[in-house]
Amino acid sequence: MGEICAFTEEHVAEVSALFLRGMRGSREAPPERLQDYFREIFFGNPWASPEFPSLVYFDRGKLVGFLGVLPREMEFGGRRIRVAVTSQFVVDREQYQGFAAIEMLRRYLRGPQDLSFCDGVGEGVDRLWTFAGAQASRLYSFNWLRVLRPAGTARSFGGRLEGPLGRFVRAASVAAAPLDFLAAKLPHPALRPPRSECASTTLSVDELYRTMQEVGWREALKPYYDLASFRWLMSQVAANRTAGDLLLTAVHAPSGDLCGYYICQVQPGGAASVMQIGVRRHDQFDNVAGALFRDAWQHGASSVKGQAIPYALVNLTNHYCLFRQANTSVLFQARDSAIGEAILRGDAALSRLDGECWLRFATEKWI
Q1: pLDDT value at position 239?
Q2: Taking the model in full, what pTM does it have?
């Protein structure tokens, strides 16, 4: 058995190199900007606390494992609860074949947090979580997709393919724009540009924060942000330029009443990724979603995608959204069984702002 220690700044260079080996298959020296990002995320975040350290694993004096931990806060039953979110769970399998992963995971799950949570657990690692005592939330583990421009969407997905099929799709991509222009003329509403009578208003971060407080959440388990931590979080999301332009938008009904808001990142010609949707009442979801799809179309997106919103599954279907099981799972462990039951029945306002999906580790080209 090796030694598990709290992650400190003196480990940053070694952990950055481990990340490149384990996640990118590279043995290059970690660039300073990657090391700076590790420092910013795990030591510079506004929730950082020695009570919730990230973990490193040493085998015979060599660092071979890392489990990143991001403390967060949420509310449940009128009380504040402590949440610990995992990110960048990696073990160097070329140099170590032991049980570092399960040992670090068990240490993390024994921490003082009320809720342990991760929304980016890949196949194989999810079995480690369940073996260690966590549960999978199937409701929050699938995604929805609203196709806006069919040929553009096919081009976006096909561009990731390797081999002859990938080359064919890339060669045919020059026809995507004219094909989508013709498709938009067809009578089926799923193919025509989305329309909405609601008004969209661009917000600053502070204005969005005030709007979120006004809108609130109806679910039993809900996020908690103060203004300072929310500013930091939005600055991190905005820095992820690979994901596209950040839209912070309030949606008002034709009467002028506030319906809700949305936060998404838009890649012109690519996907608009929804980070969070908030509504004053559940029956106003269609207003907010309709404005979102219209705005994404106007910004040139080929599709809109997001994490499952349990109360709005029928609404999303009515907006011609497709659903798929993602290749990652949402897993959790709760000290209070009532918190776990709320997640399992879909009574939790979990969004991509509350896990690790907003981080740049996976999307940035670090080398």
Answers
A1: 95
A2: 0.91
